[in-house]
Amino acid sequence: MNNEPDYASYVRCIEEVKRRLGAIDDILVGSKTTSYKYTNVEFVALQFRKIFELIILATLASHHHLFEGLVRKLSKEWQISKVVAIVKKKNPEFYPAPIDRVLSTDAGNDR
Question: Has this prediction a pTM greater than 0.70?
Fold first, then answer.
């Protein structure tokens, strides 16, 4: 990792997650397309995979002191279950707990 503060790397990962979720929404509502329905499905699946990887990277960024030297090992691994196992071995509760999203009835909020 570089010398920027831990939170900056975390924020950058989470901002990319937000952009990828927006790309998924665009495909699902039909405002954007890959022009072929099967590649739309593949695109959405790939975005979910990348989002999962970004969440793992954000966790590493926010706990940089726990994961010194682990990034190189993780960058060579392509099986997500092995990546999760490696990170869990170092920190069993690394993955953030999900929350229930409550939509606002505010007229100014569209998401």
Answer: yes
Note the pLDDT tens digit of each residue in 3-31.
666 688 889 999 999 999 999 999 999 99
Q: How far apart are CA 12 and CA 54, in angstroms?
A: 9
- Can you give the residue ranges of every domain in the chain? 6-90
Residue 94: partners with Cβ closer than 8 Å, 6 or more residues away: 56, 59, 63, 87, 88
| Residue 18: alpha-carbon gap to chain centroid | 8
**What whole-number distance in Å separates Cα of residue 107 and Cα of residue 2?**
41
Task: Say whether 73 sits in a helix, a strand or coil.
Answer: helix
In our burial notation (b when 16+ CB lie closer than 10 A, e otherwise), range 17-38 reads beebeeebeebeeeeeeeeeee
- CB within 8 Å of 75: residues ≥ 6 apart: none
d(CA 17, CA 24): 11
